[in-house]
Amino acid sequence: MENVINGINHWIRFLPEEFNLMTKNEVTNRPLPHKWSKKEILGHLCDSAINNIDRFIKIQYEELPYVIQSYNQDQWVLLQNYQDCPLDEILNLFSSLNKQIINIILNIPRRRLSNLCDIGNNQLKTLEWLIKDYLEHMEHHINNQILIKNNA
What we know:
By secondary structure, the chain is mainly α. Helices cover 61% and strands 5% of the residues.
């Protein structure tokens, strides 16, 4: 779990610096009408943190295997209107939520990391896998969408 914590801490420190180097147009440009802007992708990462905080806690005490409930990512981004929110507020939310995720991870008893969850399609995964997947998901969006320079 140390690698996950270090990874999350890295992005908490690094992402605000990267966003501050971008122009407003780079931050708010949607590459296609139905695609998210970099700012909305950051909002999506906040939504992911919100949903995973819930999962990381419930997998520790609810009946196993814990069934992961999906959420409508597009509706979450749309209804929270990240596109029109001040960037610094979204960055602060990202930081606060991920600091809480680190706090949760640090307090998970080792034996609970093997608790099983049903992620759908007849797939059972451990809480440890889910936590590692959380960071992989975050890094996918950051490296492949946020940090990519587009002609905005």
